[in-house]
Amino acid sequence: MAEGRPLGVAVVGSAFMGKAHSNAWRNVRAFYPDVPDVRQQVLVARDAEATRDLAARYGWAEAATDWRTVIDRDDVDVVDICLPGHLHAEVAIAALEAGKHVLVEKPLANSVDEAEKMLVVAQAARERGVLSMVGFNYRRVPALVLARDLVASGRLGDVRQVKVAYLQDWLADADAPMTWRMRKETAGSGALGDLASHAVDQVRFLLGQDVVSVSGSTETFVRRRTGADGLEDVTVDDAAWATLRTSGGAVASLEVTRMATGRKNSLSIEVYGSEGALAFDLEALNELSVCTDPAAGFTRRLVTEADQPYVGAWWPPGHILGWDHTFTSQAADFLTAIGSGDEPSPSFADGLAVQRVLAAVEESGARSGELVDVEVS
Ligand code: SOE
Ligand 1: which of 265, 267, 283, 324 to mutate, judged by most atoms within 8 Å of the beta carbon? Predict the structure, then answer.
């Protein structure tokens, strides 16, 4: 482990998430100067030439193609996994066992079984001072942290209802090509794992409660798509719906889809309590609508003041943040935990809790929407 030198970071995976995480590691110390120093040591991906190019563009010292050799290196202390879901468990477990701190992009795994195994290894690693975290980046949206704080302060009274919808449209076109995201063996599930994982995490995060039972359904609207080898069956869902009941007696309705024509990356969350309510929309990431006087309705609050969560690390008041900032703040939080030895959040236990809810939605769907209880640890 790093002694008297910056923490060496390896990002495994160079596609969309590898790029987002690379940007975070590149910027983290510029905006969060108090976190432990890091060195962008190595970017790992399959194609040697492409990875060399991307490593140079994204600020990595080196490129590599074999994650196994990378996790054994003495100059790598943090392994950040940005791979398709079916590879999360194998790489995370090997890296933790090699003594590396591990950040895993959401969802933690493709199944409850994998997530449980990852948690066992993470807990054993924790005993040796090796930390792990799952990358639910929306926990670093300033407005959502403020929302969580408002709920926790009791200003909304008893939370009764939550409405969360995560809508995208990149599969609305039936001619959109087949990718790993539409195959069960690589992605585990479709909109469910990819989008509902965020939605369920937000319900747990905002309310500070567990999901205890689920009734849900899933749908695959386009059942065959063309891939490199011709027409293939789509083996995951395009969309999912669920009613979630929480440990505190709240009920959340959830809708996620990749087929919502015209919606690019629309995450909307509404929370209704006995005395107040709040509403968030990712397309207006710097705002939170708050109702604490029911007669007056909702007031739009800018979340761009230096004393608001995460905002002070960035620009002067009013200079808005975007989606990419959440990844940098996430990297900062992980580094802070590594520096202090405190438990990072969200943990693999949080990742497993989300995975259990996703599995319950699938199970419920397969049983015509029957209520399914969710195991809570
Ligand atoms: C899917 O399109 C996706 O990129 C998710 O994988 C991310 O987690 C989400 O933040 C944006 O949408």
Answer: 265
